[in-house]
Design brief:
Rossmann fold, nine-stranded mixed β-sheet
């Protein structure tokens, strides 16, 4: 392709993105609308409208979402995401609720660039032309994109639902701040803290831990798998890796998990640990089936849900907690109470705990009382909610 053709293609893409966003005041969205339609009536009246527009890539009609549309908003914010994910739905909804509950009239433009970075670049260019006030990079891939392509840009950026920026190399660990237009938050807590909770406060006799991760999810490998491997000597826990590509029909997850289950059957002090990945979350039924009676834990509380489709326990940072932190950073920037480059990496200090007793292996006869007291979510042995968001939902006894 000649230089002239490249310029023409980029111009056309910018025009197309600008036309779509201007006409509908949203970007490419489909599942987002469904998620907000569900939460709107029960979460302070989040307003959302349904639109249809043809996708630039597929030509298919796609549902569009509008959030908190005000005729004269205080701020206009772009939420940039690389794909559809339940995690991004939850995070974006929580951010929008936080702004609404704060009484800040904000219009959110949701744009899924579907992995096409030319479209992402064009959308940011359009947002600059429209003088948007802030951008949320939603997800690790979107945060990686802005870190590579929009560092020192004119619009401030706050990362959300993204892995540790220090481990990813975006932030100097000594400075703990970006010194750019990007303010980072982290979906990770200190791995040392997670392993301490598991080994010191829960499975005190744990000797073997198998970490299940998606080989396509680079951020999980860098921020979760490698740090756990580095701590195995300190905690006297042997860490095994189970890397799988679940898009490959020959991923051999069953065989790999079976080998760990069969490992020294006399030793019950072992567990599986699922890393933060949409692909793994969508296959939690398979993971539970292959785990047999070995407990399945996760680093993200959002992997714990009611019913059978859930891991047993999670110790980490929930999407909601991270989203509230990202919203706080965004409001501080918009209200001129902090500059993005001077805000320290946003970390959730104490881990969120979530438990589904329906997924508890028979070998585990008790749980630490402080886990039950501190848990964000608890589901009983029938998978029914007992505690949601830290609030008691039922008088059912454990």
């Amino acid at each position: 392709m000649s230089k002239g053709q490249v310029i023409l293609t980029l111009f056309f893409t910018i025009f197309l993105c600008a036309f779509k966003a201007q006409a509908f005041e949203v970007g490419f969205c489909d599942r987002m609308f469904i998620a907000y339609q569900k939460v709107a009536p029960e979460h302070n009246g989040l307003t959302c409208k349904k639109r249809f527009v043809k996708s630039a890539k597929t030509g298919r009609l796609k549902e569009q979402a509008e959030l908190n549309r005000y005729p004269d908003p205080q701020f206009n914010i772009l939420v940039l995401s690389p794909k559809w994910s339940t995690a991004y739905d939850i995070s974006t909804a929580e951010i929008a609720r936080d702004f609404r509950n704060s009484g800040i009239k904000t219009n959110f433009t949701l744009f899924n660039y579907e992995g096409n970075e030319i479209e992402a670049e064009a959308m940011i260019t359009w947002a600059q032309l429209k003088q948007f006030d802030l951008i949320f990079s939603m997800g690790s891939k979107a945060t990686d994109f802005v870190s590579r392509n929009y560092k020192h840009g004119t619009i401030p950026v706050v990362s959300a639902c993204s892995k540790d920026p220090i481990a990813m190399g975006y932030v100097d660990p000594l400075l703990m701040k970006s010194q750019t237009n990007i303010a980072y938050t982290s979906l990770n807590i200190n791995v040392d803290t997670q392993l301490a909770y598991i080994k010191s406060k829960f499975l005190s006799d744990l000797t073997d831990l198998a970490i299940i991760y998606d080989t396509n999810n680079t951020s999980s490998v860098v921020t979760q798998v490698r740090p756990f491997l580095s701590l195995q000597e300190a905690y006297k826990v042997k860490v095994s890796e189970i890397g799988v590509d679940l898009k490959d029909p020959n991923h051999n997850l069953e065989r790999k998990m079976q080998e760990f289950v069969e490992l020294d059957k006399s030793n019950q002090a072992k567990a599986f640990l699922v890393t933060g990945s949409s692909e793994l979350y969508e296959n939690v039924d398979l993971i539970n089936a292959y785990a047999q009676n070995v407990p399945v834990l996760s680093v993200t509380p959002s992997h714990v849900e009611g019913g059978e489709r859930s891991v047993f326990m999670a110790i980490g940072v929930s999407f909601e907690s991270n989203a509230r932190l990202a919203a706080n950073y965004a409001k501080r920037i918009l209200m001129h109470k902090g500059k993005p480059g001077e805000l320290p990496v946003g970390l959730v200090k104490a881990p969120d705990i979530a438990i589904n007793l329906m997924r508890k292996p028979d070998e585990i006869t008790s749980l630490p009382i402080n886990f039950l007291e501190d848990a964000l979510h608890i589901f009983n042995s029938q998978g029914e909610p007992m505690k949601v968001g830290g609030l008691i939902m039922s008088s059912t006894q454990l």
